[in-house]
Amino acid sequence: MSEHGPTPRRVLVWRHGRTRWNVEHRFQGQADPPLDEVGGSQGAASARLLVAYSPTAIISSDLARAVQTARPLAELVGLPVILDRRLRERSLGEWEGLTRAEVVRHHPEQYAHWLAGRDAPQSGGETRAELGERSLAALAGAEGETVVLVTHSATAMALTGRLLGLPVTGWRAVGPLGNGRWSEFSFDDYGWRLRAHNVGPLGSPVTGLSTSDGSVAAVEVSAVDVEAVDAEPAR
């Protein structure tokens, strides 16, 4: 970010809708499965609420599940979807495409590190610190008063940790976003503030209860989102 501070005054970090791999508890990383039918509905329902924020820019990971989530909002507000590969999910190397059970069986030591919150030495993967740097760089290049970043679970967690000044080991203090849900940040003289977390349509599956202004709240919990295997382990 420039020495004068970031351009956006409000940022909405929006996780993509559900994929079949989410249902199967399969690590996605930078593999590219599309949204399933539920995921498409999640994106459309959330888009109808995100319109109220009057977004001025929509920037998305270039992976299909994020782009498909972004499109309904882009159509509603008449904005292009700007693609930025820096918003991709954390690269998980040889874990990508495997279920949690398969990783436990084939890479038990790596999995133990991951479950404990340490960076597992995955072949071809990236560290949490690297993920935080590239997600922050994506935001630094964003322009507009209210920017929507369409991204992934671990990437959203990393960006949240960086904006709030948390050490990598403290990122878990803010739980992973549910599919199709978002966090709201505002920037003022004191820096970035987390105004709301895990916001989304009434009645959609979530990992936690949160609301921006009282009009949107979470009321259900989904086992799929609680697992959130493309992000951090759920405890």
Counted beta strands: 8
Query: How much helix, percentage-wise, in residues?
Result: 25-40%
Taking the sheet with the most strands, its summary is: 6 strands, mixed
- Strands of the widest sheet, in order across it, are 3-2-4-1-5-6
Based on helices, strands and strand pairing, what is the structural class? alpha/beta
- Work out the strand percent: 15-25%
In round numbers, the mean pLDDT is 85
Morphology call: globular
Whole-Å distance between the termini? 34 Å
H/E element sequence: EHHEHEHHHEHEEEEH
Please report the number of helical segments: 8
Q: What keywords describe this structure?
A:
235 residues; alpha/beta; six-stranded mixed beta sheet; two-stranded parallel sheet; globular; disordered C terminus
Provide a descriptive summary of the structure in words.
- Strand 2, helix 3 and strand 3 form a beta-alpha-beta unit.
- This protein has eight helices and eight strands, in the order E-H-H-E-H-E-H-H-H-E-H-E-E-E-E-H.
- The N terminus and C terminus are likely disordered.
Can you describe this structure in just a few lines?
The protein has 235 residues and is α/β, with parallel strands linked by helices.
